[in-house]
Amino acid sequence: MAAPLNFAFSTCPNDTFAFHALVHGLVPGPAITTHMDDIEALNLRGESGEAEATKISLAAYLHLRDKYALLRAGGAAGFGVGPILIAKTQREVGGRIAIPGNTTTAALLLKFFGKETGKQFETVAMRFDQIEDAVLRGDADCGVLIHEGRFTYQDKGLVLLQDLGEFWEARLKCPLPLAAIAIRRDLITQAPAFDAALRASVDYAFAHPEASKDYVHQYAQEMDPTVAQRHIDLYVNAYTQALDEAAVERFFAIAEQYGFCQPSSAPIFAAKAI
Question: Which residue of the set 147, 208, 217, 231 is catalytic?
Answer without folding.
Answer: 147
